[in-house]
Amino acid sequence: MNLLTLKDKGPTQKLVFAAIMACIAFLLNFIEIPFIVPYLRFDFSETIVIITVMICGLRFGLMVSIIKALLFYLFGANGSEIVGVSILLFSSCFLAIIYYLFYNLLSKLMKMNTAIVLTFIICAFIYAIALTLLNYRITVPLYSGVSFDVINQPGYLWSIVSLYFPFNIIKIAIIGVIVSIFSRIFFKDSQKQ
Question: DSSP string of 120-164?
Fold first, then answer.
């Protein structure tokens, strides 16, 4: 089965596929693996977003990101989790955009699997830097009640970087491995390019 044939289908089929993927991504939000500290957890919903971007394009991948965040806000998070849902939405959309940009560029220059691996290496560093900065400046101060004056202290910066940067690198590496395996299984015909 080659799912890339969905790229040639009309918007209705892509919309139905994206809706199904959004529901799967929403459910995957609840399957979390803790990482060092209890509030840092891997969830695999971004994997579904990337697969949707690969199959249907960026617009539908962003649609999956928005729908899964909205569903999580309505049915999964309590009312005080608006910051967490906002970060979920931002991180998912940001990853979809940088993946789309780099994969489209690299897939023109090399084979599909090589392009996927190189794209995820690049995305891992860009994503880790962006999310570490976001956690440093916004998320941690809002969640923990840390004064914005504390942000400028060197110990605070080091603690955020040493925790969030490796977490995000590992997270994108895991997502990259899953997407690579998925593409080998479902995109067999296109890998002969």
Answer: HHHHHHHHHHHHHHHIIIIIHHHHH---TTGGGSHHHHHHHHHHH
Separation between Cα atoms, residue 123 and residue 101, nearest integer Å: 10
Amino acid, res. 39 = Y
Q: For the whole model, what pTM was predicted? A: 0.84
Q: Could you report the per-residue pLDDT of 4-57, keeping only the tens digit for each?
A: 566 667 788 888 889 999 999 988 888 878 777 777 778 888 999 999 998 888
d(CA 139, CA 137): 7
CA-CA distance, 57 to 49, in Å (whole number)? 10
Q: Report the 10 Å Cβ neighbour count for 147.
A: 8
Question: Which are the contacts of 29, defined by CB distance < 8 A and separation ≥ 6?
Answer: 43, 45, 68, 72, 76, 88
The structural architecture, per CATH, of the domain 3-192 is: Orthogonal Bundle (1.10)
Long-range contacts from 94-97, C-beta under 8 angstroms, 24+ separation: 94/127, 94/130, 94/131, 95/46, 95/49, 95/50, 95/123, 95/127, 95/172, 95/175, 96/49, 96/50, 96/53, 96/58, 96/61, 96/62, 96/65, 97/58, 97/62
Taking the CB of residue 27, how many other CB atoms lie within 10 A of it? 14
Residues 6 or more apart in contact with residue 33 via CB below 8 angstroms: 41, 42
> Domain limits of the chain?
3-192
